[in-house]
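Below sits our specimen:

——
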Amino acid sequence: MEHYLDNAATTRVIGPAAEKAVDVMTALYGNPSSVHSMGALAEKELETARARVLKALGAGEGQLVFTSGGTEAINTALIGACRKYGKKNKRIVSTMVEHAATLETLKFLSDEGFDVRLIKPGRDGGVSARDIVAEAQDACLVTLMAINNETGAVLPVSEVKALLRDAGSGALLHVDGVQAFLKTEEPLASFGADFLSVSGHKVGAPKGVGALFIKKGVRIPPLLHGGGQENGMRSGTEAMSAIASLGEVCALYSQSLDEKIRKIQKLNAYARRRLKDEIPGLIFNSPEDASGYILNISLPGAKSEVLMRVLQGRGVFVSSGSACAKGHRSHVLSAMNLDHRLIDSAIRVSFCPENTGDDIDALCAGLKEGAKLFDM
């Protein structure tokens, strides 16, 4: 039996979303830009999906641009904002714990002449809103994630927005909502951000689809040029099967979101209790107030790659950090100034609504076996 606990890396496509994708691929396969009736049906599916994602975001007026995923959405927002609004104020403020999609884009913008300031986190993975805003007085853009993808730490997005407003800063705010989308009680648009980036495959939709929300009144140039799809913001024929699938997920989750969040919180609490009681020396790297969807743990003296092999042998699938890091030492845990023994033994456990207590029981049993290899 498989116990998949790596949902922060990717999720299984839920049944209704997969069925929707197949229906679009085989029956409603017209190009939404075509003027005939098949194209009109596809365009209707496109706009239905757009409305569903906007509703899930809690967004009112503004533009929703479908992308190939979170990475493209983040690149489009950051590069577009800096090119449009960064001609005078060339500073960008972010944090050291961002996803590679943000950090690598910031490196690119730094090479283009922008002054990138990265705020260091505390040992709990949190970041001070006041530290961010203190650097943002002359910034054109502030970008930060809502929920950290390795520790689940919740970053103070709403507070940053309020402090920017109170300080009279003209900096725009971009929020990487990839790990927060459909996982928070308050919709992401309530943060008041100028840009929101989300991804489909973290919430039960296929890989290869994401979205960028752009607040009304904000204008940026496109990253991709061509046929002018998505109101000129993202040229290229829309990936209709994946987009419709994402819309289906949003429609389904909106009916039972609070219930799913409560289930995850209970599952996380159960995992913390079992792990603390049964595995001596285990350390939680995720703060108590972290998102329930992510739990980062360490077993000092062990090696994460060995623990992962033991767990995999028992059908338990986790990761040692961001899937994009591919085995490299976590830049997030390093920025938190954690001891190297904690970093080298770190395991990220991440949940979805389909997980159960049996998955946690299998995780605990596997970690007990792995600990024995290190005489623990």
